Amino acid sequence: MLEARFPALVETQPELVAQHHTAAGCAEPAVRYWQRAGQHASDRSAYLEAISHCTTRIELLTTLPESPEQTQQALTLHIALGAALQTTTGLAAPEVEHTYTQARAWCQQVGETPELVPVLVGLWRYYNTRSQLHTARELGETLLRLAQHTHDPALAVVAHYALGSTWLWLGALPAARQHLEEGISGRPMERAYVGGPWPCRARARRG
Amino acid sequence: MQGQGAEGMTQVRQGIAAGRATGAMLRVPYFSALLAEVAAHLGHTEDGLQALAEAHTLVEQQEERWWEAEVSRLQGVLLLRQTGTPQVEAETWLRRALDVARRHEPQSPVAAAGQAGRSACAAYPYLWLVHRGL
User: Fold this and answer.
1) Class of CATH domain A1-113
2) In percent, how much of chain A has pLDDT > 70?
3) Under the phi-then-psi rule, with left for phi > 0, alpha for psi from -120 to 50, and beta for the rest, what region is A187?
4) Model pTM?
5) Which of B22, B26, B66 lies nearest to residue A171, judging by beta carbons?
6) A44-103 residues touching B, CB cutoff 8 A
7) Largest Cα–Cα distance of chain A, in whole Å?
8) E strand or H helix at B109, and its extent?
């Protein structure tokens, strides 16, 4: 009804439509529009709004009965929330770790999913930036095993960058060099992971 | 060098504090060594040694060892300037800096400076520090 009468509003201000559905107690369409609002906000680099939309939607999701779809939505939401929090609070803020740890738990419920990658990368960035380097190294090793298991050369580049960086801070320069060189020799990435152009940064460290 | 060392020290201190407030501890040993270097230029030996004490603590706590050689080298340099400190104590730190640098990688700048200094200035063990401008 609302959508049919105000199609432009749905496009430009999905959060308004979401608010109406929330107020009317229609949780399912509300969740859908909050998702669109969150994406809309992130696309415009409006991270505070994205965080607010994601949080609202996560709260709404808890009112719905448990289902595989709900678990998947919770996972996707936590990943979006983690990325926005990294931008507003910094990579090392406790809420970033909390969000990605929850996302990792959702990943375990979902089973094998490519969404484990941004979660592990987010956790690696958190521990690396806090200089909790052995935890960061373990996450890098998990990423590399995942890349080998899934035969994903793009993910291998990300994993080698993570390990090369963390070994560098640990002062193990030969290990750092080996991983960075392996990352550089890997195939260029075909898709971007949440968290930035990793292989470009790996290349920049070559000199 | 613009001759505004005191202002520089304040800014480095503020930068370290602002970064730490976000939970970011990576590279804080490096930033502390920078602070010590500014203090050394200003002749504020005690401030420099205090910054290095913080750097040493974090290097050990975090096992973040990539800048450890430079932290040890600066410790030796500042101890040499401190009146009343036996020279042998400074020498211990300088030797440790060389050991750490060699362990990290034979071609690291500190190790290279040490080797160049040792061969060229065998009769004057600390002259290699001049190579580093300190």
Assistant:
1) mainly alpha
2) 89
3) beta
4) 0.78
5) B66
6) 89-94
7) 64
8) helix B109-120
- Which of A91, A126, A131 to mutate to probe the B interface, most B CBs <10 Å? A131
**Alpha helices for chain A (secondary structure H):** 2-5, 7-12, 14-23, 27-43, 47-61, 68-89, 94-110, 116-129, 133-150, 153-169, 173-185, 198-204
Contact criterion met (CB below 8 Å) for A133 and B29: no
pLDDT at B92 over 50: yes
Return the domain boundaries, chain A: 1-113, 114-207
| Structure-token pair, residue A13 | 């201000």
The rounded Cα A34 to chain-centroid distance in angstroms is 18
- A114-207: what fold? 1.25.40
Give the model's confidence band at B51: pLDDT under 50 very low, under 70 low, under 90 confident, else very high.
very high
Evaluate whether A79 touches A119 at the Cβ level (below 8 Å): yes
Cα separation of B114 and B118, whole Å? Answer: 6
Q: Please state, in angstroms and rounded to a whole number, the distance separating the CA atoms of residues B108 and B73.
A: 13
Residue with tokens 């500042």: B78
- Of the residues B66, B72, B96, B105, the best mutation for testing chain A's interface (the one with the most A CB atoms within 10 Å of its CB) is B66
> By C-alpha distance, which of A83, A74, A131, A129 is closest to A103?
A74
In this chain, the answer to whether the domains covering A1-113 and A114-207 adopt an identical fold is yes
CA distance A78 to chain B (A): 21
Measured over the CA atoms of residue B76, residue B81, residue B83 and residue B86, the dihedral's sign is: positive
Q: How far apart (Å, rounded) are the C-alpha atoms in residues A78 and A3?
A: 27
CB B68 within 8 A of CB B86: no
Domain ranges within chain B, ordered by starting residue: 5-131
pLDDT at B127: 35
Phi and psi of B83, rounded to 5°? -70, 140
Contact criterion met (CB below 8 Å) for A60 and A31: yes
